[in-house]
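User: Predict the structure for this protein chain, please.
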Amino acid sequence: MADNPSDCDDESRLLACIHAGDTKAFERFYVLYYPRLYRFILRITHRTDAVEELIQDTLMVVWEKADSFDHSCKVSTWVFGIAYRKALKSLAKAGRDDHNVDFDEFAEILVDPTPTPAARLETDNWLDAALTKLPPDQRAVIELTFHHGLHYREIAEILDCPENTVKTRMFHARKKLQSFAAAVSED
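Assistant: Here is the predicted structure, written as structure tokens:
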């Protein structure tokens, strides 16, 4: 346990405190990562029924294996890597990679330079639908790049693939999203 609560202020120190069995440090880590993991896992799996369990599984690995973090990457890279592998296993176990979206449902979406809250919600719904058209590895690249602001090098570590593979996935994801947008705008 940490002698001083300020000893567990940054993420690396939190992990060291967690490794030492500090439950308060784990609670702080949980609060810090829960919303980030929720969004990330939901975007990868599109399974609201599995998100809570996957967050718990991910954070249980953090609790049990905090000592395995080797500081070769950022803590967030390590945690998102765990979450990504758990999410893929969940998709495989469920035998599900659902890409079915009804294009007609989004035919009336208009782009407004000053969107109202309702228009923003509609755009978010459209984006969520468009992302479901992507395979999980491409959704992960989009989510980690644009929502979490990670660099391709960090994403490559999380996804356990070469950086060029991340770039290729981004290229293909953008092409698919452009096709989706074109199909909706034509309607």
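Residues 96-113 have pLDDT under 50 and may be disordered.
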